[in-house]
Design goal:
47% of the residues lie in helices and 22% in strands. By secondary structure, the protein is of the alpha/beta class. A 5-stranded mixed sheet has the order 4-3-5-12-6, sandwiched between helices. Strands 9-8-10-7-11 form a 5-stranded mixed sheet. The protein has a two-stranded antiparallel sheet with strand order 1-2.
Amino acid sequence: MRIEQLEYITAVTRLGSLRRAAESLHVSQPALSETVRNLERELGVDLLDRRRSGARISDAGRELLPHIVGVLDAVDTLRRAADARHRTTRMIRLGTVNAATVPLLVPTLQAFRRSHPQTLIEVTGGRQADIHRELLEGGLDLGLINYLQGDDKPPGLHTTELLRGRPVVCVRSDSRLAALPEVSVAELLAEPLIVMRAGYVMHRYVHRLLEGRDPVFSYSTDGAEMGKLMVAEGLGATVLPDFSVTGDPLERAGIITQRPLAGEVPAVLMVIQRPQSTTTTRSVHALHTMFVRSAAAYTGTGPERGDATATVGWP
C-alpha cells in the first residue's frame, strides 16, 4: 500500500470524477485508475462506484474513508515534523543523471549560494530509476532527469521541462569525425564508442540507433561528465544531448566539440522533478525556481518563456 493510493481515493471522493481527480493531481487518468484498482485488489474491497456519469465512493469505501483520512493526517504530521528538521539542518538533496551538470547545474548552484549562503546542497549522481525511487521515498528533494520525447513520466512526481535538445556526437576536436558536417551511423561504428551504462536514457537511445550492431570497440561509463573526459583524452566518441556539450569547459577550451547525427533524431528533454505530495521548504522552492531561470538563460529565452513563468510560481 502506498500513500498516493490513499490520496487518489480522497481526490476522487472530493471531485466526483476520475478525470477531474487526475487533472488535479497532474497524472494521467489511466494511471490513476490503475493505482486505485491495485489498492482495491489489495484490500479486497471496491472503494469506488464507477458509472458512466462519474465515479463516486462506494458504501464500503465510505466506511473506510475515516481510516484513510486518518492515515493521511498522520503522514502530514510526520512530513511537517520532517520539514521542520529540514529547515533546521538547512540541507537540500539533489539527484542528477549528470547529463547537464556543468552547463546547467554549476551556474544554478553559484546563484543559489549567493542568495542562500547558509544552506547546504548535497548533489548525488545516479540513474533515472534510482532518482525516481529516492524522490518518492523522500531521500531526495529534487531530481534532474533526462527523457526522450514521448517517454511517459512516473506518477507521484511533478515534472517541469528545463531544456530541450537533440542527440549529437561528442568528439575530440582533432578527431576525424570533427571534420565531417554530420556523422552517420556507419561512421560512428567505425570509431571507438563511449556509451553510457544501462539505465541511462542515452544508453537506450544509442542501442536503438545502432540496431544491434557493434562498434569497432566500446567503453561503458557512468554519466556524461566521465564520457566527455574520456573523449578529451582521445579514447573515442560518445553520443550525448547537445545541451550537455554546449558550454562545457572542455568545449569552451576547444578540446571537445559536437557534430550532428545524420538523419532524423528525437528530442532529448532535461527536466526537474519533485514529489507531488511532499511539503516543500522555501529553500527547495527557491532552488527549483533558480533552475527554471538558469535554463531560460542558457537557452537565451529569458524569463518570458512560457513554461518558465509557469513554474516560477510553483505549481
